Records
---
Amino acid sequence: MKLKVLPPTLRKNNHYIVVDIYSQCEITKNEFISIVWDGCIRYFGECHTANFNLWIMRFQQIEHDSLKYYQSVIRCQRGFEDDLRVALTCVNNYKHDRISIITIGISGTIKSAVNKFFVK
Amino acid sequence: MFLDLNIKGQDFDKNIEMANHSKKYGWNHINFSYNPNDFKEALKFKKELNSYFDGTITIDYTLEFKPKNQNELVKITKKFRDKCNCITITGGDLKINRACCENIKVDVLSRPYLKRFDSGLNHVLAKEAVNNNVAIELSFNDILNSYLSYRSKIIANFKDIYTLYRKFDFPLVLSSRSKSIFDIKSPYDLLYFFKSTGLSEDDFFKSQKTSQDILEFNKNRKNMILKGVRRIDNEA
């Protein structure tokens, strides 16, 4: 049986962070999920990361001449955007390949995040 | 205005790539750092670099070196003082840290905590840094390229420096010290990182102002006869 959906006042408020990802090797969405969780747990620990309410909403690859370049929208609980941003900034490598995650914007809805910051 | 005073300089093409990347993420000015051996070579394409970007991002050079002793510090600083807008000394050794803070010709003491178990600064050095207007540089790359206990120890050193900074108010410079485009972050990423380690937002913007002041002061350095006395053209 499915749980009944919470009334709007009891739901968590989310914000959406748009990030640019540069990598030396190809990464999949699942790999990116583990990179984000790993980065947060490493920097802030398990207890604080529990507040973030992380979820990857969008993930796309964009053509780049020399590197692998991706963009993603990450869901995060309102009030913890700065913490997530810091944790992602401190991610340095994945499986011995260099990776760089740069936050390019924060938005209240997925639609505006995609419209404003995503490369089409 | 966001300035990064320390990005590792390389050849012309690499510099363009790094500057393009920095420009994309919101930096207004970057300084490529070179050691004394490569500095002359790099000066040859400085104008070309600036004309390539046509003012959208301004580029300058920093001379960065790690002296073996105090004498070498004085010698190299004297030699290059008029040729570059920013002289940065890599710290770590207590004697070098002290000599650097006492030398008015030095602009920045970079990473005084390097390869040490403490921050490399105390109240005496902090006062000297204030008197001689020597900025202390903290580099984000040290955090980025370390992990676990090493990273924690560097953050602990940062926090010790923040404590001294709040009391003595010496010039503080925050830079990325990027070696490749993977190390370049947006200015706001750096802001929130330093905020998470205990520095306030105002202090971050003050550090950007400090970087700007260093560059502007050095453009006029030739005309500074004494402290507080500047030669001006006969404008009247």
---
Amino acid sequence: MVNLNIAIERKSYASNMPDVLGPLGFNVAQGEFVSLVGPSGTGKSTLLNMIAGLESIEAGSIRFNDQLLKGPPPCKLSYIFQQPRLMPWLTVFENLRLVMPDSAPFEIEKMLDKVGLKGKSDCYPKQLSGGMQRRVSIARAFLTRPDLLLLDEPFVSLDAPNAQRLRSILLELWLEHKTTVVFVTHDLNEAIQLSDRVLFLSSSPGTVLLDKDIDLPRPRIDDVHFQNWKKHLLSQNPGLLEGQVSDVSSESFSRGFI
Amino acid sequence: MRHSQSHVFPETGVDNTQAAVDKRLDPPSKFKAVLISLFRWLIPLGVILLGWQATSLFLASDNVPSVVEVFASLQTHLIHGDMLHHLMVTLLRVALSFCIAMFFGVMIGIVMGAFPRLNEAGDSLLVIALNVPALVTIILCYVWFGLVEAAAITAVAINKIPTVIVMVREGARVVDRDLLQVAQVFNVSPLRCFFKVYLPQLYPFIMASARSGLSLIWKVVLVVELLGRSDGVGFQLGTFFHFFDIASILAYTLAFAAIILVIEGLVMRPLDRYIARGNYNGGGPSDNHRYTGGL
């Protein structure tokens, strides 16, 4: 299990380009499900890639269990990308096998069963629908029993019932494995439904506008309480989803900084 | 109708359903489809042979032997001559220089595609290597290393390596970074990553260079044999040239062309099918895994 401490000062892709991330800091506790919500282009994916060790950290630090991140992350990490990113020349089974070479075939079959892909292990990704390919990528992410799971808008461009089914699969697996999760989305409903805590990012360069615990009881359904909670949040913080807040509370800003 | 279509033009249909269509096919219609495709293949061949025979009869010249004469010569060489020996020798040279050329070509191509600086440094060298005539390398190899087998094989391989490099380099340039990131994030070992994630993306390019390579190499091998070996198809062709034995020259050509056809059918086609498994086409327009990684 792993907790995260993030304290980025800034991030840009080149010295002559504007920053994609501004000063930004927060903690993620062990087993916590944290969502990052913000308009597109605020560097949410960049932040995830930095945590995953795919992007360099120029100024600032990321700590895993108080250990400074240098190079590959010091824990078992899984990443569900925006696109399923399956190897088209490997079958579903081989795709899962790729990330866990030592796993027994029955474990892989069990995982496929859990995401509702029983009997699809010999199919190639192109033979599956978009939703099924995403399920394979969810299965792949949980098969390695990760300490930290990163998700980058995994349910975008899926039809509503399909997305809902995959969300509940994700929640089930999260409850079972008790993984630390960082979830990037621009869909507030999704964030409220799934996470323990939601961080709102400003428009570019991204900084944390608001750090909000979600104290709704689980399982959460889109009912009156849910809508009231959301309405209350948005009325208190107008412009939150557009990435602008007139009054940035100092409390939320300092929370994760050392 | 639908059945026979999907059989005759498998490359135009969606390959996903190919297996399913095959299963649904009842034996008679499948047989019919095979027959149709066989006829499509046989008719042009028949027209050419007939045209050839008619021309030679019309010209009635010793320099244009008829089909019958050529096949008679082929039979004599196969049964009474040592054609099989010469074919095998040539084939062995082709296979050896092909393997050497592919190995070095793929390695250098990957390195040049992966490192832009090395690519810039090697680019002009590559252009020169591409344009050195085959004859020059052959003569130089024979002069420097002597009229030995190793010199012959080296000369052929050197001729082929640059074209392999050029094709594989293109593949290595457009390798999907997104998929490599998957391997990196999930901590896939470098060896597994190379063979399961990286190399499969190059297979279509390697395959294309192997295809063009086979045809180029066997032509160069014949020149090498003509100039400095005392066996092989090239040597035999040189001998027949001295005697103006056109029928034998055509018989040897036919024999080796037939071998290449068999290799194409038994090795290249199955390899093609293996590489295209999962409907992977090397990043063509239908490959939706590419260019989709958002911010």
